[in-house]
Amino acid sequence: MEEHGPDHLVFIDRRNDVMKLAQGEFVTCGAVGTTFENGSDLILQIYVYGNGARSYLVAIVVPNMVLVDAALGSGASPEAVKALLRSEIKRTGADAGLRSFEIPRDFLVEYEPFSHANGLLSSIEKKMRPNLQRRYGDALEQLYTDLEQRQHDELMALRSGSSGDDVVTKVSKALAVCIGVHDLDLTSPHGFAALGGDSLGAAEFAALLHDVFGVEVPVSAILSPTGSIARWSAQIERSLAIREGDAVAPTFAGIHGRGARTLRADHLALEHFLDPAVVAAAASDNPPQQSRHVLLTGSTGFLGRFLAIEWLERMEKVGGTVTCLVRAADPDAGRRRLTAALAGDPELEARFERLTAHLYVVAGDMAEPHLGLDDATYKRLADSVDRIVHPGALVNHILDYEHLFGPNVAGTADLISLAITGRRKRIDFVSSLAVTAFLDRSQGYDEDSPLLPEIEVGGAYNVGYAASKWAGEILLQKAHEQFGVPVNVFRGDMMLPHTRYVGQINVPDIFIRMLFSLITTGLAPHSFYELAPDGGRARAHYDGLPVDFIAASVADLGEHSHDGYHVYNTINHHDDGLSLDSMVDWIESAGFPMTRVATHTDWVEQFELRLKALPERQRVQSSVLVLDPWRRPFKSSWRNVGSARYIAAVAAAPCGPEIPQLSEAYLHKCIRDLRTHDLLTTG
User: Fold this and answer.
1) 468-519 confidence digits (pLDDT tens)
2) Is the separation of the CB atoms in 303 and 495 below 8 Å?
């Protein structure tokens, strides 16, 4: 509001100019506009416009014509002016670290500056957004319509196959359609995420590539840090070159049927995944009791990096080797990724450096045939590795099973193929406690409960990921039954920050997001759980374990070799009353005041509003885009899935004898870790 006189207030703008776009992203149009005006001398003024039904922004741009004329010469064409401004918007957005949806996809050029005289600025030179919308709203909505028509026409041309373009050009055009960037460098090494895409956009891009070329490009390949237009094109060209009778990599559609929502265990027969020649020559010798060469997947992930440390220490004692399979352009880049994952704490860095004499890194990809390895490297690993430790996965709780199939299911089958080639190998598989939703509970609910032979998958949160782990377990059961591969399955739940090393937290996970959001907003519900009959807090429990304990227990239990198939529910089994409500108390004891909202519904409403109003950097880190699991109170009666085998094994292992409980001191360490990542500035 602006005061024009006594009792005369004129509406200028909303206090927090926050808009939710169609794919759920929140954007502050006014702040984005200020970024462009402050970051570019060529942009005199900009009005950034969004529509909640669209997933991107458009704008009105007023150029600084003195500087435009200096750059282009007097009398430059409108097309030249717009091209100059487009490049300036792209540069400024990149320099400011704006995300793709914050950078206007297109814009109209306005040569008349916004002013108080034309009603577009207030008397204090503030934009009158209501007046700007009245003046330009129809034109900008028409711009949206024109953009969508152009996108539709481009899609039709791509799908018709009539363009005559080569594969690289078609892939570039498909990418441009999906992310709205039309000046792509075909030789750029930048991947999908670097160009502004996300996991849902990657799924859309994969579906479009299938429509255009009739071949599968896994979402994991699109999201890979080594992904690029050139690599995707090469993968498509390899698939197109396959002739009838040649081996074809298994796909979701080929195994389950296109669009399948019912998955059956008998779909996952190993003969659908393994080369008959590999099966015919399957190794029959038992692997050694003492492992000396461990192949580790997912070593740059949150759990994988600490499994690397655990197994490197074990290999140091016996003169063995840990080979880490890392998604990277080459082994040196892979080693740099692993080193970066373990950086930040001097003690951890020194521990890792001491062990690197026993480390070997290969560049590969779980989503590619033969793990993305060349024949010589694959044969060397087949002949020398005696244990495969497999925490690697595309961890995404939003994507459907179909889009997780390549890395999480076919990738696991590739490891089984390796496990029976050359010499038989043990497999330690990190699954997920979410798989317990797919157990036959007719005779109990524990580590011996059989997997359901048929499951249904839909669009619910985390169902696709859980189903991909169910499928991985089915494949490993068959590998043990048919080929005698010794298998350990570790079903983990929430993996929490390291108990000792500074800054070792999984920044984007749901726990860290909520911890950050509670502290930043100062709002918590009276209880995260259904209330007791008297209206007070019910006794409840939070199931999470520190990542270092999980890594140590997986390595300890794996090192105790056997020839069977063992499942461990790696959970915090204590019925101790330590819950999310306890954590709110511990946040307060760390010096952060909390307001408890009486009803859960009111808390969600107030909490979401405060999260939306946060500055951009904080909002991105918050729970605002993953609020659905928190919208209803949890049941206070903890689902007591059995974990007797895990409890007994830990009791006899070096990491034991007890499974740790959460504590106030531990949560305070987690809060200090948030500060280490510059996520907290107070308290």
Assistant:
1) 999 999 999 999 999 999 999 999 999 999 999 999 999 999 999 999 999 9
2) yes
Q: pLDDT tens for residues 459-478?
A: 777 899 999 999 999 999 99
Provide the pairing of β-strand 487-492 with 565-570.
parallel
CA distance 199 to 209: 15
pTM passes above 0.70: yes
Q: Which amino acid is at 566?
A: H
Contacts within 8 Å (CB) and 24+ apart, 123-126: 123/2, 123/4, 124/2, 126/2, 126/12, 126/13
Tokens of 527: 């209880």
Of 329, 313, 336, nearest in space to 230 by CA: 329
Residue keyed to tokens 């960037």: 181
Peptide linkage before 657 cis (omega within 30 of 0) = yes
Q: Which two tokens stand for residue 400?
A: 């459907």
pLDDT tens sequence across 72-98: 999 899 999 999 999 999 899 988 888
Residue 2 is predicted with a pLDDT of 40
Whether the CB-CB separation of 127 and 121 falls below 8 Å is answered with: yes
Residue 563 to residue 161: CA distance in whole angstroms: 53
Nearest CA to 518 out of 614, 617, 634, 396 is that of 614
Task: Supply the DSSP string of 41-103, one letter for each residue.
Answer: SSEEEEEEE--TTSSS-EEEEEE-HHHHHHHH-TT--HHHHHHHHHHHHHHHHHHTT--GGGS
Residue 404 half-sphere exposure toward CB, CA atoms < 13 A: 23
CA-to-CA dists, residue 307 to 294, 545, 580, 649, angstroms: 11, 15, 28, 18
Pick the closest to residue 531 from 594, 581, 575, 587 (CA basis): 581
Domains, the chain, in order of start with CATH, read 2-148 (3.30.300.30), 165-246 (1.10.1200.10), 299-492 (3.40.50.720), 511-532+578-676 (no CATH)
Distances (CA, A) of 644 to 443, 447, 523, 661: 16, 8, 38, 17
* pLDDT per residue as tens digits for the range 618-673: 888 999 888 988 999 999 876 678 999 999 999 999 999 999 999 999 999 999 99
Given the structure tokens 């300890």, which residue do they identify?
A: 556
Tokens standing for 191? 């991947």
Question: How far does the chain reach from its first CA to its final CA, in angstroms?
Answer: 33
- CB-based burial label for 355 (10 Å; 0-12, 13-18, 19+): middle
Compute the chain's Rg from CA coordinates: 28
Q: What are phi and psi of 168, to 5 degrees?
A: -60, -45
The amino acid sitting at 394 is L
Instruction: List residues bridging with 544 in a β-sheet.
Output: 494
Contact 223, 191 (CB under 8 A): yes
| Other CB atoms within 10 A of residue 198 CB | 19
